[in-house]
Amino acid sequence: MTVTTETQAIGATRAAEAPARPRFFTWRRFTTPIVVVVVLALLLLWVSTLQLDSIEQRTLNWGYITLRVGEHLSLTVVASALVAVLAIPTGILLAKTRSATVRNVILAIANIGQATPAVGVVILLAILWQTGYTTALVALVVYAFLPVLRNTMIGIQQVDANVRESARGMGMTPNQVLTRIEVPLAVPVILAGLRTALVFCVGVATIATFINAGGLGDMIVNGLKLQRYPVLVVGAVLVACIALLIDWIAGFAEDLLKPKGI
Amino acid sequence: MNALDLDGLLTFWGRRWDDILELVLQHLAVVALSLLIATVVGVLIGILVWNRPVPRSLTIAAAGVALTIPSLALLALITPVFGLGWTPTVLSLVFYSLLPIVRNTVVGLREVSPAIMESAKGMGMSPAKILFAVQLPMAWPIILTGVRVAAQLTIGIAAIAAYVAGPGLGQFIFQGLSSLGSKNALNFALTGTLGVVLLALVVDGAFVLISRSTTSRGLRV
């Protein structure tokens, strides 16, 4: 009796999995990159029809644009990597502390941190410390740290107590429970936090221009200040495209890195 | 380099109390106005798409994608058309508020159990009556949660909108930046930032009250 139900159960999960596999690559999955490519092509077409004056020529050339895109991407990627390295272990440690007060205080701080405007953090750091790339990087890390920390803590804590207990019952040590059960089960939540952090970073890296840290914000701000709208539009569209692409790549990675069983 | 001087900050607050209050009110006004518009538009969109699978998933996907666009980029993009000041600010705040509101409206309307819908039909209610007398009141707490999320989001974005001459506390933050190196730079930026944080916390608290007073009496627990 139990044998038949078991085979049925396995069969049922296989049947449920079977259509899920080929659905991984669909047209829908590639909508974002297609839209981004079309938008960039239209942008290029539009700019090439314009008569650029000397100020516009100084910024609307490949050298300048690739430099700014590079700065923007480096800020975003370095900050997100730092956040991943710092916030995930901290989150795991905090989730494992016995004291509920420590956890609640950290979660409360994380909530207040989310209410803090990014411009405020960036500009305050610049006033208190210095302007430039390093300050922007620190501001990005500080700002993106909290969502990842919070998601890691919540991800570990939401693991079903029964699952934890069965792992114990199978003779796993607390460390094994952590590395083989809790962390893998928390991976989807942690990855969602990292994805949010990445998209945050693209947005906040735009603001980095206010403190002389480069990035595509330079083009937006220069375009606004000098009333050169083509410069502004190119900067803004590029930032939006980068944000969309990074979110898309992160979503793709999220699906790939998710433990197979979940 | 600039160290915090608490006495200086207090005198700064004392001297500029009127300015601070005005900026707080402006900030609140622009956020409230945007949320009002976004709620009306968002709930309408939600009503239009909630029971049509293809438009529904398209709308929610589009709104999710829209949310990833950096706010400074959006603000900058609409200034050539809409100029500076309140208009681009309100427009971009509405833009960012729509996702949480539309998503929660759709979820809320779909969560009303089919049994309840059927009893309403059995009582002879027209589809419009069912929507307004049954579904929307039952979905309202969820819709309001969406508005609350949107409020937190827009209070932060409104600070950036000061760069395109938008109203609110962001003006103090940017004034701090432009007076970088002077004695008051830190006071300006700190006041602006703390003001935004406080405002966000107060508004979040206010939503608890709003949700309690606007939820249909039968649904209150």
UniProtKB/TrEMBL annotation, chain A:
Q: Which UniProt keywords apply?
A: Membrane, Transmembrane, Transmembrane helix, Transport
Q: Which InterPro entries match?
A: ABC_transp_perm/SBD, MetI-like, MetI-like_sf
Q: Does the keyword GTP-binding apply?
A: no
Domain of life, per UniProt, equals Bacteria
Q: Name one GO biological process term.
A: glycine betaine transport
Localization of this protein: Cell membrane; Membrane
Q: Topology with regard to the membrane?
A: Multi-pass membrane protein
Q: What is its main location?
A: membrane
Q: Can you list the GO cellular component terms from the UniProt entry?
A: plasma membrane
Annotated ranges, domain ABC transmembrane type-1: 69-250
Q: Any transmembrane segments, and where?
A: 30-52, 72-94, 106-127, 133-149, 185-211, 231-253
Which SUPFAM superfamilies does this one have?
MetI-like
Family from the record: Belongs to the binding-protein-dependent transport system permease family.
Instruction: Report what the protein is called.
Output: Permease
Q: Which organism is it from?
A: Agromyces mediolanus
Species classification: Bacteria, Bacillati, Actinomycetota, Actinomycetes, Micrococcales
From TrEMBL, chain B:
UniProt key word Membrane: yes
**What UniProt keywords are attached to this protein's entry?**
Membrane, Transmembrane, Transmembrane helix, Transport
* A GO term from the CC aspect: plasma membrane
Positions of the ABC transmembrane type-1 domain: 24-209
Q: Where in the cell is it found?
A: Cell membrane; Membrane
The domain of life for this entry's organism is Bacteria
Q: Where are the transmembrane segments?
A: 24-50, 57-78, 90-109, 153-174, 186-210
* Record InterPro entries: ABC_transp_perm/SBD, MetI-like, MetI-like_sf
Q: How does it sit in the membrane?
A: Multi-pass membrane protein
* PROSITE patterns per UniProt: ABC_TM1
**One example of a Gene Ontology biological process annotation:** glycine betaine transport
Family under the similarity heading: Belongs to the binding-protein-dependent transport system permease family.
Q: Which protein, by its recorded name, is this? A: ABC transporter permease
Organism for this UniProt entry: Agromyces mediolanus
